[in-house]
Amino acid sequence: MPVVIIFIWAGINKNHGSLDVTGDLFAFIRGLCGFTMGAWLRNVVLSSALKKWLDNDAALLSVFLASLYLMHISKEGSHNVYVVLVFSLLVFIAAQQSERQTPVFKLMDNRVTRFMGDISYSVYLWHAVLLLAGVEMLNLITPEALASWFLQTSWLAAISGMTAFMAVTIFISALSYYGLERPAMRYLRKKYQAQQFVVSNVS
For the whole model, what pTM was predicted? Predict the structure, then answer.
């Protein structure tokens, strides 16, 4: 299964020059491949020996640094495919870790990273909405300021803009997670457990 997915990713990347396809059948296929790869990785069962090879700081730090390296090199050829594969490997290796009090593990697993992990799906859903809606609102309210913003080249302005956008996105995502996502998960979990209880009693 993963070999087929990799070939599909490589084909999309070759035809479009990137995996950043969002508006046609290839976008659906790309999304389906990502979901399928995640589902496959979720069900992989490792032997105790292989798990021991992955459950350590060296493996975790190596794949983390590899992902950072790929994010800072020129995006040519099959770069996008390598990024997706290394990020998949990062998630898989991270899932094999056991709790320990080491600097590398604490860098990856702490209150901040857990919070960001909790709201990550909300961030994914909201960031594009906030960006597109924000740009449209600014274009209606103050088009001159928006036009001048797109022309600016100041590092300070860029960093300030990114920081403000990230703060708003995290704030809205946290509200969405705690006010909508978690209550919905609790409701669905209780409903599923109630159905399972009824089925077990009937059988």
Answer: 0.72
